[in-house]
Q: What sequence folds into this?
């Protein structure tokens, strides 16, 4: 039998073991004992109602009752971007037109922003590969929605789900190679790790604040915008607005409060997310 419960201090070794198997791109679950310990403490304080809104975080684990082991994790950040910046790339359109020349061009753009500040985030969904069966993934994932519906006053009016961006079989990010590498003198894996342990200031310091015209990016980089990692495909299906927003909104509406759910796909450029 499997069940979901709040994380406990004694789960640190199991959590560290899971984090070491996530691979690149899952920045909310870094293989760093200090950062994971801090997150566990934040979760314990949140469940005890002893944390501020900026630090509120709820972490859940999936337990195999037969083996007595933690085999999966999921979490909710009550409000992102209030204690440390939360970056995303907004996908937009820039129109260039000349009536005199009869020229009209609508150019897709990326603009680095903090649009999701204050929104709640579904994050850190990871399951031991040996247990990715029998609906274990949906169980540990959707338990968060039940918690949000039960304690809706603790969360924002909008819920986002950040999903790991697409990487190739060697862990290479085409988006990073096409854009990020031009501004960061480091490998993607290094930038990914720094973001995961909370050192995000370099994003604002080094990334351009001007719109990036996607037509100037290599085709390989353009092709992965909005695409997710192969391991995140099930999570995308379960956290998409079509799959979950209707159920979650109707549940919370019974408590006289509506909230909207949306899926946000991470573009692996120092974990800036790409949203439409």
A:
């Amino acid at each position: 039998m499997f069940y979901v419960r709040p994380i406990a201090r004694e789960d640190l070794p199991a959590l560290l073991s899971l984090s070491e198997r996530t691979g690149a791109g899952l920045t909310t679950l870094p293989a760093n004992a200090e950062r994971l310990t801090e997150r566990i403490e934040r979760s314990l304080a949140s469940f005890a109602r002893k944390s501020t809104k900026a630090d509120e975080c709820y972490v859940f684990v999936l337990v195999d009752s037969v083996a007595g082991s933690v085999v999966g994790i999921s979490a909710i950040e009550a409000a992102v971007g209030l204690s440390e910046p939360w970056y995303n790339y907004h996908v937009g359109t820039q129109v260039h037109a000349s009536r005199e020349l009869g020229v009209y061009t609508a150019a897709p753009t990326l603009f680095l922003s903090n649009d999701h500040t204050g929104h709640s985030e579904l994050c850190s969904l990871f399951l031991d590969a040996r247990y990715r069966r029998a609906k274990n993934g949906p169980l540990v994932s959707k338990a968060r929605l039940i918690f949000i519906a039960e304690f809706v006053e603790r969360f924002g009016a909008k819920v986002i789900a950040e999903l790991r961006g697409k990487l190739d079989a060697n862990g290479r990010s085409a988006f990073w190679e096409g854009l990020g590498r031009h501004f960061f003198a480091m490998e993607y894996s290094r930038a990914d790790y720094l973001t995961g342990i909370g050192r995000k200031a370099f994003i604002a310091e080094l990334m351009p604040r001007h719109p990036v015209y996607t037509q100037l990016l290599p085709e390989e980089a353009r092709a992965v915008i909005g695409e997710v990692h192969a391991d995140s495909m099930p999570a995308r299906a379960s956290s998409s607005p079509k799959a979950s927003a209707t159920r979650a909104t109707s549940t919370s509406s019974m408590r006289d409060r509506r909230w909207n759910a949306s899926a946000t796909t991470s573009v692996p450029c120092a974990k800036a997310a790409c949203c439409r």
Remarks:
- Strands lie at 2-6, 57-64, 69-77, 88-98, 103-113, 120-127, 158-163, 212-213, 260-269, 272-275.
- The chain is about 30% helix and 25% strand.
- The first helix runs from residue 12 to 19.
